[in-house]
Design goal:
With 747 residues, the chain is α/β, with parallel strands linked by helices. The chain folds into 4 domains: 9-136, Rossmann fold, CATH 3.40.50.2300; 170-232 and 240-328, GAF domain (Beta-Lactamase, 2-Layer Sandwich); 408-561, Histidine kinase-like ATPase, C-terminal domain (Heat Shock Protein 90, 2-Layer Sandwich); 594-714, Response regulator (Rossmann fold), CATH 3.40.50. Helices cover 48% and strands 18% of the residues. Strand 23, helix 22 (680-689) and strand 24 form a beta-alpha-beta unit. The longest helix is centred in the N-terminal third of the chain and has 58 residues, at 117-174. The protein is flat. The two termini are 46 Å apart. It catalyses: ATP + protein L-histidine = ADP + protein N-phospho-L-histidine.
Length: 747
């Protein structure tokens, strides 16, 4: 925190000459700086006082007997990094001064210029106070961010609970066949909310007040124990107090220690929530959610969530019983031949309700007659009533994500062998049903790749599905995984219908299939291979299709970059450019560097001219490859920055011509390809054509300046010695307002 203004400033002064020390102290006093000054003259005293702390400033001579200023500075930075350190020395060269500032000194004052001491001290103290204030603000900001993170986690928890409720409602509304529907609902809750769960319902053939129940649904995370839940053995004594819950209508949490040992040992029981299933003051049964793991407990919100689930289960039970009653009524009506039409109309209404909700809400959304809140509600209703997604729909969504750039990966180090094996096992039943043999060559020690396991499995699964679909009975599909230098290769080869040679360039296009008749016979919309290609490319890999023609099978080869060396931790590289790029002021100076900028877009040229001007470079611009080549011959630029896609000759043609005349020029011109073509193959092509660097648009000018500085480092070292003369000889011109700025030099 900033220094308490109520106490006097304390200064530690390292000076072996008492007279020099006295002179320094007098200048401080004459400048109105009141301070308690502790003077020390040797290393031991200095380090002892420094360790005691409480100083606001350190003053130090640079040359001391057996102890120099650099060692004192290093010790002060180690012990009191926030305390300003000012050298007060009789003689200190410029190189030493610069080195000292780099090592952490705040300032330096020569002893024959002590009139600078007061301002230097005030500036150092002011900078320290500002630093401490910034840190305090940063701490407050971090605390705010932590609060935001907690709020976000709470929002995510609420969203997860809402999703669980929505999924449960969808399952409960999906069928009026009660028992299997309740089992499906419990499987949503286990293991997400509990380790096991049961539903007991009051028997309808006994009086309500007796509350005699029967078990209708159960689920356990351990399949071996699930069958134990189907029996009521061990439950006769009501170990969880369900009868009390039925009587009072209030939920309760039961500890496993309070139940029978047999129940704990057989099922695993740490805690259990028992809630009533009630509707319109009628007790329908109980829902039990239990945990077996002592590390997993229940809190108040879990009880509230269980109560809400029980309410929705009650509605589903009521609907199922109403439906069963309606069916019974219908049968009686048919037998009696009375009320048939009316009853059938009621059943029709019940069956059409979900479709009516979908069509009705969709029309209202399209017409824009409802507000934002109702729009969100409409979407929820449509999702709940129409969640019948097929693989074709998922493919359409993936293509939509690809087109909009929203297909995201969750990269992590993964074992490609496991990915391939899981995909093979997933497709094997389908292949066996079609009489197609799958042979897999998957070495166990293949290394790792950095990727999204689910998406890569989708790639292999899609390729295998395609191969099986187009391979006839008694055919064969081969899968091979192998390691290449720096890559992992996955090959899927089949003996099926093959691909016409003329169609191979289009095999990964959307909605394209070689034979529309075959497409109809085999199903599908032709999206799978498009998705495969994009997923592979998002992983930085490539995929190639090959075939010897129709009836001769097809081969798909996927290559993915191998992960980092064994024993190192892979780093996930974000696709997006960092949000905090260095500013031009923070970037390197390009004083005297002659930069040739080639771009057919005037705005792009103007941006770079302005940026490089700020960096003190001498800039020449050209709007075409021909103009640029003339400038290269005449101006001999130190570096070339060129666009690739330009009318007429492109950047590749330009760099080839520049490289061809280098012997004539007597110099090699470093070149940077600055282009919107940002794919991996574009970078490879740019480097192979002769560019030294490939930089993708958009780019921060300061980042581009760093690249230029790297390429021109030897040149800049020579220019630093005579930049003054260079500045005097540089001609400054402005960009024409009409955009005809080609070939002009701007500095």
């Amino acid at each position: 925190m900033p220094r308490d203004r109520g106490r006097s400033m304390r200064i530690l002064h390292l000076e072996d000459d008492p007279r020099d020390a006295e002179l320094v102290h007098e200048h401080l006093a004459s400048d109105g700086l009141e301070a308690r000054i502790v003077r020390v003259g040797d290393r031991d005293a200095f380090e002892r006082e420094l360790a005691g702390g409480g100083f606001d400033l350190v003053l130090s001579d640079y040359e001391l007997p057996a102890y120099d200023g650099r060692a004192a500075l290093d010790r002060a930075r180690e012990s009191a990094p926030d305390v300003p350190f000012v050298f007060v020395s009789g003689a200190i060269g410029e190189e030493i001064a610069i080195e000292s500032l780099k090592r952490g000194a705040t300032d330096y004052v020569l002893k024959h210029r002590l009139e600078r001491l007061g301002p230097a001290v005030r500036r150092a103290l002011r900078e320290r106070e500002n630093l401490l204030l910034r840190r305090a603000v940063e701490r407050e900001r971090d605390a705010l961010h932590e609060a935001e993170r907690r709020a976000r986690r709470e929002a995510e928890r609420v969203a997860a609970e809402n999703r669980l409720l929505a999924d449960a409602s969808e399952v409960l509304a999906s069928s009026l066949d009660l028992a299997p529907t309740l089992v499906r609902a419990l499987r949503l809750l286990v293991p997400q909310l509990a380790d096991w769960a049961v539903i007991d319902l009051v028997r309808e053939d006994v009086a309500d007040e007796q509350h005699e129940t029967q078990r209708v649904a159960w689920a356990h995370r351990d399949p071996a124990r699930e069958q134990l839940l189907s029996s009521r053995d061990g439950w006769q004594d009501d170990p969880l107090g369900a009868a009390e819950v039925m009587r009072t209508g209030e939920a309760r949490v039961v500890a496993g220690a309070d139940t029978s040992a047999g129940l704990r040992e057989q099922l695993g029981l740490h805690l259990a929530i028992v809630v009533p299933i009630s509707l319109r003051a009628s007790r329908l049964g109980t829902l039990v959610l239990a945990t077996a793991d002592e590390r997993r407990g229940f809190v108040e919100r879990d009880v509230a969530l269980a109560m809400e689930l029980a309410l929705r289960i009650a509605v589903a039970i009521d609907n199922a019983r109403l439906y069963a009653q309606a069916q019974s009524d219908r049968k009686r009506a048919e037998d009696a031949n009375r009320g048939k039409d009316e009853f059938l109309a009621t059943v029709s209404h019940e069956l059409r309700t979900p479709l009516n909700a979908i069509l009705g809400w969709a029309r209202m959304l399209r017409e824009g007659t409802i507000g934002p809140e109702k729009q969100r509600r409409a979407i929820e209703i449509i999702e709940r009533n129409a969640r019948v997604q097929t693989q074709l729909i998922e493919d359409l969504l993936d293509v939509s994500r690809i087109v909009s750039g929203k297909l995201r990966l969750s990269p992590a180090p993964i074992d490609p062998a496991s990915v391939v094996e899981m995909a093979v096992e997933a497709i094997r039943p389908q292949a066996e049903a079609r009489g197609v043999r799958i042979a897999a060559e998957v070495p166990s020690e293949i290394g790792e790749v950095l990727g999204d396991a689910d998406r890569l499995q989708q790639v292999v699964w899609n390729l295998l599905t395609n191969a099986v679909k187009f391979t006839p009975t008694q055919g064969r599909v081969d899968v091979r995984l192998r390691a290449l230098p720096g890559e992992v290769e996955i090959v899927v080869r089949d003996t099926g219908a093959g691909i016409p040679r003329e169609f191979l360039p289009h095999v990964f296009d959307r909605f394209r299939q070689a034979d529309a008749g075959k497409a109809r016979a085999h199903g599908g919309l032709g999206l799978g291979l498009t998705i495969v290609r994009h997923i592979v490319e998002l992983h930085g890999g490539s995929i190639v299709a090959d075939s010897d023609g129709e009836g001769r099978g097809a081969t798909f080869t996927v290559r993915l970059p191998a992960s980092v060396r064994a024993g190192t931790r892979p780093q996930v590289v974000a696709v997006a450019r960092p949000s905090l790029a260095p500013t031009l002021r923070e970037g390197p100076r390009l004083r005297g560097v002659r930069v040739l900028v080639v771009d057919d877009e005037m705005d792009a040229r103007e941006l770079l001219v302005s940026a490089f001007h700020e960096l003190e470079a001498s800039v020449t611009i050209a709007a075409s490859a021909d103009e640029a080549l003339r400038v290269v011959r005449d101006a001999r630029p130190h570096v070339l920055v060129s666009d690739i896609g330009m009318p007429g000759e492109d950047g590749y043609s330009l760099i080839r011509k520049v490289r061809a005349i280098e012997q004539e020029l007597g110099m090699r011109v470093p070149a940077i390809a600055l282009t919107a073509y940002a794919a991996i193959e574009d970078r490879t092509k740019a480097l192979s054509e002769g560019f030294d660097r490939h930089v993708a648009k958009p780019v921060e000018p300061s980042e581009l300046a760093v690249v230029i500085a790297e390429l021109t480092e030897p040149i800049r070292a020579d220019l630093d010695g005579d930049h003054s003369d260079a500045n005097e000889s540089t001609t400054s011109r402005s960009v024409s307002s009409g955009g005809n700025d080609s070939g002009r030099s701007l500095s």
